[in-house]
Amino acid sequence: MASMAALHPYGPLARSARTGISYVPRRTLTYTLPRRAQEDGDNNNNTPPTEKPSKPSALSSIKNFFLGGSKDAKPTITRRSTAPPKREGSLGADSIFAEEEAGPKLIPSGRMPARKQDAELTPTEAEEGAMAAEARNRETMAPVLDPRPQARIRWERKMVIREIRHRGRLSKPQQILRSERESLSKSHWFKTSVKKLGPLARQIAGKNIDEAMLQMRFSKKKAAKDVLEHLKHAKNVAVVRSGMGLGLTGEANAPTKPVNVVLKSGERKAIADPTSIYIDQAWVNRGPYGVDYDHRARGVIHLMRPPYTSLSVVLKEEKTRIREWQDRDAKALRQRKSQLWTQLPDRKISAQNQYYSW
Questions:
Q1: Three-state SS for 260?
Q2: Mean pLDDT over residues 241-259, rounded?
Q3: Fold of 185-246+257-338
């Protein structure tokens, strides 16, 4: 503080002593201009690369402050004239995407990666490739490939006993799982309640997937948009993963005319394509509760707990409806036959006696 206070009285004396020199305002003693170093190491200064530029001392800095310094000396900033060239990488010699030819191979099946032929492999590489699978440590891989060996042995014994007991015949649920396709899809959490999402689930249950999407598209409910997006996703998953709704091209005994069936609700329906997708079941799952704030008057804040729910749908093909209708029709026919009255057969009367036989 004392040094800074003593600077003011001597300032006028220094200015009056040097006549004809303009006044230079105060500035910091240590000030470095931002410079950018070049990657190639060249600079525009005339200083030889071997000579190091001399650093200004503290005395010269104070002298330049009081006397103004030389006007010709100006700091030079080295700037990069052009951007450095871009370096592009290349594929390795052992990359599967590398090709022998420089240009792309234009073939109908697409561009295929080239690899070393068996004749080009050295004996050492061929031997290493043949012994790669045998050199693996089975004990290290066992915890992943066979984590519970005792449970696996029990399951295999159970399956063998089942095959022997049923003489290799499949049960009806197993036949249904092998012959019919289905897809279960669960949505993410919607910011709505079960009371609001339940009517939409009941509305789309039992309908064709395209008809249900049309219903949700023109619905006035706020959650209908989320339901519509979930139905689109569920349909795509069913087509890609389960192969549903791909038409009758792969079936030899496909019906040529529509099949009229009666649904569980008593509605009559004509099925033209047995592979079309419909929503067999749709239900709502209760999810977590969020946290929200309701700002009231006089600084009062109420804590709100908005609910979250999700929608699950089971998609099946129309051939399942045909099979279920046939099963119901056959069961009803058996029940009617069991309740019919049948007359006793006519037989010849024999061994008649006028006295009782006891």
A1: strand
A2: 76
A3: Ribosomal Protein L22; Chain A (3.90.470)
